[in-house]
């Protein structure tokens, strides 16, 4: 058993160093750390009686993870030396979204892993389903499946073959290239993308001149590019098929090419693909929603507080502390709900996020200092009292404001709010991944910091959508929500704002979340209404109900047919109780 554990630790160390120089295999490392945590908890149960509901002993956990700390510290130094990555993943879901051409990832079984809106519209490609064989030219679908099943033998990022596919409306025949790429975990996967190769005589003449082609060779090139078979070309030219095939082989040898596919790729590269309908830079995001006003409060001691205002000027003011995931995302549904309930959100960034100044290492006085910032903001805006919304990690800041500004806060509404990592019956029910993140931040901050930075670096590399899919797990409600174009776009904008000053603001907030902050709740607070998604995987309804049991002024509402992203799935359920508090 000890040898097995030592081998697993060696694998974790190797993955940590690998992750320091590239975004692949983050999930594999995280899962191995989770396995180590499970083993630590199993050992700890033998050392603690569990009477306080904690199910772990800190000394036991320390003995399990301590040997890994120096390696993670070294890996963090390597990562810092590499600098912040930026969109290096050419075949990530983000880049596929940004492509105006039909584009999709496809696995070895021929099932679509991810398709952009153009591929869905033109070819009816949908996640989890195989393409319609009827759209392919005769024999091409079988060739595609054969190539996918033997991906390993092909070179990375090289076009394997080109297929003919008919658009779903039957009006257009399109060429589709299959390329071997890596997915977000470094595994081989197929990428199919429409290449709209138009034959323009002037480009053909330039191609002929550059490569010193004969008229016959140019005619063969045109046939290959436009999809005319060599047999049809032979009939058109009045030659035998054997003659035309020999001429085609001679052309390929002359250009040092191995196949007609490579000839088509060579020409398409020469003509810069002439992509139909493509305009503007790839990956360009729409400008920030002009319904949101951005502001900065500069205090006398040079502390900077960044905040945004959304909603009618005449609306009832509401403080809003957003989640790290999604940040200040405000959807059209949220705008309409704010209007219906007559609310105006004052959305405040915490220290180190967006333009808000860093506040030093997370500590016991961090919440009190931030409460003074909020007091200054309310004074500057002329607001005597208002309710507050806490979203996920924002919940602990909502509690802090309610504690330190008790005479100014009329009530708290938390949306899937986190709970303190203090001993209690709720703790064992927090899901495994969340416990791992917070346990590491609490007991081994050097490992925890690396894990957080590794996840953020993966997002920065372009794998934002892949990370979200993994983070949200097998949850149809959340998975459908992040497929919405407005959510994807605004989440990407939010990430850039959230990490504008680097990753440490993010890390410090998770350090606060893993620390001791239950004292913020132990005193009697104003009314606290906790909204929990019925299918939330991280802090489930059971977790919140166990935590809230016996606490004054705490109530829990389980929101049906919602999950982690409850705020975007059912904004009316959120803003109605807020409006009740604002009017009280």
UniProtKB/TrEMBL annotation:
Boundaries of every HTH luxR-type domain copy: 210-267
Transmembrane portions of the chain: none
Domain of life: Bacteria
Coiled coil: none
Protein name listed in UniProt: HTH luxR-type domain-containing protein
Species for this entry: Parasphingorhabdus cellanae
